[in-house]
Structures are given as structure tokens and as C-alpha cells.
């Protein structure tokens, strides 16, 4: 029986587990779940009172709304002084001005991206410019970084606070802590921090996050949601392994997959046996879309993902080699067109009938018939 996001948020709040790890496809409702949880734990009026008194914050979260705090001034007139602006808000005021985390943010950002790429904060901590050193040590100032690098930078702002909070609250006696601003904090809700990272840095970040959470000795609880299967599986394995250094064991965590049902409700499914087979989950979603005639553009991204993994497993250099030779170029062009959509994971536009037919053919005749994939949902 399905549940509302508020009901699931209540379950998350009631759970005694230190870590709750949740996988869900893009568009299922992870961000809305984080907002429902935040409103449940810390309603807006309580949050405003907490800010007035400078204490009492119960939950900190990273999600799409966190990224909305940052936006670009591209200097369209001069085309020279590009900078990332920070909207006035309590979170960044706290991290940048009060806690002085800029050096840690820069270090983490360069670690996960490029050590030659340097952020520079202005004196008011409401603007960030970026420079990069070239091969001849020449520095180029005021560059605009990529969307992926921007997302990573914003995550590093949050991550610096996360590390400080864990360190401060690991001091058991409040009177011995360097600050008491975090004393009332109960939860960190982290929603998809890895959309921009390559696989190597993604794995490294997952290991770092798991290590940090395991090291937390306070009452803090952590909820992590993601649509990235690699990030999920690395965290799954990390949280499944005991760590005597921190008195951590697998019983401190729970792992789930969140599915959206046809009636608009949601179903959290325990996945405690092992990391799930992501390609089969994708194929199941494709089957559902074909049967219900609800094929959308992002389903081509699912198809490409399965083809890429299959090509790697079978030793092909290019996933296009898996497609029928007589129409290979056309199929590749069509898949590339849709899977490279700017927001392919969240695209809601219905595809043309011909494109529906092509996707259905490639799933049934290539994946199912030729390469013998089997899925939970049978084709009609």
C-alpha cells in the first residue's frame, strides 16, 4: 500500500537508525521528500525563531534548493567580470562569515575537481569569482565554470559545514565544545550531491562521506537520497561494513529504494540484502513505460545507460556496436539526441510516436531478444 511523502518523512523521523540510505529515480520525489522532512522536523515558524536566537536549528539539508542560493552574473555588457552570486540567507552567512570555512571549501573543491581551479570570495562573502592556471602558469581570471563544477562547489560549501558539525558534536560535554550553535541539531538530510562528479571522484566522495558519518559519535542522524547507482552502491557497502574505530556496525543503518506508484503515492522498499542491479531496475522502468504507453524523453537516457554497461561488460569499444548494423547510425543519432538533453533525468515531454516505436523495438528486440536481458515486468 502506497504512502504520502509526509508519511514517509514521519517514518524517517521515527527511525532509530543513525543512517538511512534511499535510492530513487530522478523525478520520483527525493527533493520533495527532503522538504517534507524538513517541515516535519523544523516548521518554518520554529526555524525563524531559531535564527532569531541563533540556536535551535534541528535539521540541515542539501538539495536542489541549496543550489538555488547561488546564481551567475555573467557580465553580459563587458563579458569579462563573471562571478557567482550568493543570495542572502542564514545558511551561507553561518558557513562563510561565522564559521569561516572558506579555506576548507576551496581545498575540497580543488580536490574533487582541479587543483588549478581556484574560487575567490569577496570581502562580503556574497560573491565568488574563479580563476584557473594554464600550462605556462598564466592565470585566467573571472572565468565561468561548468555546471558540474558549480554544483560541486556548492556541495563543498555544505560539506565543510557537515565536517565541522560532526567534529564539534563529537565532544560529549556541551560546555567543552568550541561552539554551542549545533547543540540542538538532530538531522542532516543529503539529497543527490554527486550529479556532477566523474566516477573516480564520485567513489572517493562516497567513501569520504561514509567515513565522516561513521565517525559521528553524537545523536546526529543522517538521511541520504540519491538517483546515482554507483554512489548508492558504494555507500551501501560502506555502511554495511562494521568499523571498530568508531563503534559502528551495520545495524546502525537501513537501506531502501523509493518507488512512485501509479496512484501518486510512494512505496519505500527495503534493500538490505545487497546492492540492487541497477540495469535491471532501468529495464523494469522501460518496460513499464512501454506497457503504459508513457514513454518520455528521459527513457532514452535509461536505454543508453544499459547499452553502455552492456558494451563494457562484453568488451565493445562503443555501445553503438550493440545496435543493428543496418540502421546503427540512425539509432545512435536518435539516442544521443534524447540522452544528451540538458535535463534528461527530469524531462517530462512526451516523445513522438516514431521515437516511441524505435525505443520499444530496441528494448524488445535488442536488449530482451538479442542480449537475453530479463526484467521483473513482462512485455505484453
Describe this structure in words.
This protein has 380 residues and is of the alpha/beta class. The protein has two domains: 5-73 and 90-115 and 148-270, Rossmann fold (3-Layer(aba) Sandwich), CATH 3.40.50; 278-370, no CATH class. Helix content is 45%, strand content 14%. It contains 13 helices and eleven strands. The chain has helices at residues 5-14, 30-41, 44-53, 64-67, 90-98, 102-112, 147-169, 199-215, 229-240, 278-292, 298-314, 328-339, 353-370; strands spanning 19-23, 59-62, 70-73, 83-86, 117-121, 127-133, 139-140, 187-191, 221-226, 253-260, 266-270. The strands form two sheets. Strands 2-8-9-1-10-11 form a six-stranded mixed sheet, sandwiched between helices. Strands 3, 4, 5, 6 and 7 form a five-stranded antiparallel sheet that branches. Helix 8 links the parallel strand 8 (187-191) and strand 9 (221-226). The longest helix is centred in the middle third of the chain and has 23 residues, at 147-169. The chain is globular and about 70 Å long. Residues 48-54, 341-348 and 376-380 have low confidence and may be disordered.
Amino acid at each position: 500500500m502506497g504512502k504520502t511523502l509526509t508519511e514517509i518523512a514521519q517514518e524517517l523521523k521515527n527511525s532509530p537508525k543513525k543512517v538511512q540510505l534511499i535510492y530513487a529515480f530522478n523525478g520520483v520525489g527525493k527533493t520533495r521528500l527532503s522538504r517534507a522532512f524538513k517541515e516535519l522536523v523544523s516548521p518554518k515558524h520554529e526555524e525563524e525563531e531559531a535564527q532569531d536566537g541563533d540556536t535551535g536549528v534541528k535539521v540541515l539539508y542539501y538539495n536542489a534548493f541549496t543550489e538555488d542560493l547561488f546564481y551567475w552574473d555573467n557580465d553580459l555588457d563587458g563579458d569579462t567580470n563573471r562571478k557567482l552570486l550568493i543570495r542572502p540567507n542564514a545558511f551561507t552567512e553561518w558557513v562563510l562569515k561565522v564559521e569561516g570555512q572558506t579555506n576548507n571549501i576551496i581545498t575540497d573543491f580543488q580536490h574533487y575537481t582541479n587543483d588549478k581551479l581556484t574560487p575567490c570570495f569577496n570581502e562580503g562573502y556574497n560573491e565568488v569569482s574563479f580563476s584557473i592556471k594554464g600550462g605556462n602558469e598564466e592565470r585566467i581570471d573571472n572565468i565561468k565554470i561548468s555546471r558540474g563544477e558549480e554544483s560541486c562547489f556548492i556541495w563543498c560549501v555544505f560539506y565543510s559545514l557537515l565536517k565541522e558539525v560532526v567534529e564539534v558534536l563529537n565532544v560529549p560535554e556541551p560546555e567543552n565544545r568550541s561552539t554551542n550553535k549545533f547543540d540542538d541539531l538532530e538531522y542532516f538530510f543529503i539529497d543527490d550531491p554527486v550529479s556532477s562528479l566523474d566516477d573516480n571522484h564520485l567513489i572517493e566522495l562516497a567513501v569520504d562521506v561514509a567515513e565522516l558519518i561513521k565517525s559521528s559519535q553524537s545523536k546526529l542522524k543522517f538521511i541520504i537520497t540519491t538517483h546515482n547507482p554507483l554512489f548508492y552502491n558504494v555507500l551501501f557497502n560502506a555502511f554495511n561494513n562494521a568499523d571498530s574505530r568508531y563503534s559502528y556496525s551495520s545495524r546502525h543503518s537501513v537501506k531502501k529504494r523509493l518507488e512512485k506508484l501509479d496512484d501518486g503515492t510512494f512505496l519505500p522498499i527495503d534493500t538490505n540484502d545487497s546492492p540492487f542491479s541497477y540495469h535491471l531496475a532501468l529495464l523494469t522502468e522501460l518496460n513499464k513505460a512501454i506497457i503504459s504507453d508513457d514513454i518520455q524523453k528521459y527513457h532514452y537516457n535509461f536505454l543508453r545507460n544499459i547499452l553502455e554497461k552492456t558494451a563494457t561488460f562484453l568488451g565493445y569499444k562503443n555501445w553503438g556496436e550493440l545496435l543493428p548494423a543496418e540502421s546503427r547510425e540512425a539509432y545512435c543519432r536518435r539516442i544521443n539526441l534524447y540522452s544528451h538533453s540538458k535535463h534528461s533525468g527530469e524531462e517530462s515531454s512526451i516523445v513522438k510516436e516514431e521515437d516511441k516505436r524505435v525505443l520499444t523495438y530496441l528494448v524488445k528486440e535488442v536488449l530482451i531478444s538479442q542480449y537475453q536481458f530479463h526484467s521483473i515486468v513482462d512485455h505484453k
